[in-house]
């Protein structure tokens, strides 16, 4: 796959924009997933994932063709996510009680996917719980956990992607795991 | 029971698949005796399984198209080159057409002298061919790059290419009159005559056979 991608990138470098569509097609799910797990919101995730591909295209000349493209692309995506998280001042939480109601929180304001069968709802709820807990992690732990367990990168790849020393990556993964364990052990 | 602090470190080493054989042995031995650490270890593994179980989500529809629409415009040259690559048949056809037009145009250019079919009683004056009054011209008359003035009579068809025909009140043509002006009509005229010739050859061939 890397060879196809490299070939397409060479075409892009020559100015062939259409070759980039194939690159986007190959990585769109991965990049979207990183963004979604980092941001916990599909809309924002799509926005940032698109931005990541756009940045990668604009800066394609600075990509070292001898390196792995995915590492470079994921780095752009995670950095954009971290920027977004830092900028974002959440003005409301879904958990917060809605004023003037008795015990209703924002979750009840969201249209539920009622068409889903019962057993699907249960697994969906679990998915949401997990995602919520991932979203609650401080971003430095969140990025390593997402790359390690959702993108299944090796510790070395994570260290390259995030431009962090291997030791730091390990420490963050350990702390991230412990933090998640505290939240998820009774699920 | 107070567990040694390094046990948790060993657990993480194990989860990172970077534990040494020595540490692993120590960890295993400890876990067998310590329920608390066993739970801790189990919870860590469960957490990882849960995180990994989050279903693989896909990018929204039209994601690629949206990204492509946001990219800055590419250089024109590449677009043209790609168009040629993606439409080989059209490229070949248009190339053929260009060459064709070239040859047609050049033969059109060469053809700019007045030419007239050879009938003895046609009179040529400058750019004008005249069928004199009272004369009867037999056979088809073709005038190229000039006008035709008919004062007498023509027994046959009249074709005027790149010119005009004037019919005097006394003039008379027994066959059809055709004027060809533009290059395309001229071309069409050639195709038609070629086709007619072909049909003629074909038909005579048939009749020959029948004989």
Largest interface pair = A-B, 43 and 36 residues
- The quaternary structure here is heterodimer
Q: How much helicity do the residues of chain A have? A: 55-70%
Per the CATH scheme, the topology name of the largest domain in chain A is Rna Polymerase Sigma Factor, Chain: A
Distance between the termini of chain A: 38 Å
End-to-end Cα distance of chain B, whole Å, is: 122 Å
User: What is the average per-residue confidence, as pLDDT of chain B, rounded to a whole number?
Assistant: 80
State the total count of DSSP E strands of chain B.
Answer: 11
Quick one: biggest sheet of chain B? 4 strands, mixed
Name of the level-1 CATH class of the largest domain in chain A: Mainly Alpha
Largest sheet of chain A, described in full? Answer: none
Overall SS class of chain A: mainly alpha
CATH fourth-tier homologous superfamily of the largest domain in chain A: RNA polymerase sigma factor, region 2, helix turn helix motif
* Structure summary, number of beta strands of chain A: 0
Overall radius of gyration of chain A: 19 Å
- How are strands sequenced across the largest beta sheet of chain B? 1-5-8-11
Family (chain A): Belongs to the sigma-70 factor family. ECF subfamily.
Keywords (chain A): DNA-binding, Sigma factor, Transcription, Transcription regulation
GO biological process, one term (chain A): response to stress
Protein name (chain A): RNA polymerase sigma factor
Question: What report would you give on this structure?
Answer:
Chain A has two domains: 1-90, Rna Polymerase Sigma Factor, Chain: A (Orthogonal Bundle), CATH 1.10.1740.10; 114-186, Arc Repressor Mutant, subunit A. In chain A, helix 6 crosses helix 8 (166-184). In chain A, 68% of the residues lie in helices and 0% in strands. Chain A is mostly helical. Residues 111-116 of chain A have low confidence and may be disordered. Chain A is built from eight helices and no strands. Chain B is an alpha/beta fold. Chain B has seven helices and eleven strands. Chain B has helices at 6-15, 21-33, 35-53, 63-70, 76-86, 88-110, 183-210; strands spanning 115-116, 123-125, 128-131, 136-138, 141-144, 147-150, 153-155, 158-161, 165-167, 172-173, 177-180. In chain B, the strands form three sheets. In chain B, strands 1-5-8-11 form a four-stranded mixed sheet. The termini of chain B are far apart. The A-B interface holds A 14-18, 20-21, 24-25, 28-29, 31-33, 36-37, 42, 46, 49-50, 53-54, 57-58, 126-127, 130-131, 134, 145, 149-150, 155, 170, 173-174, 177-178, 180-181, 184-185, 187 and B 8-9, 12, 15-16, 18, 40, 43-44, 46-48, 50-60, 63-64, 66-68, 70-72, 74-75, 77-78, 82.
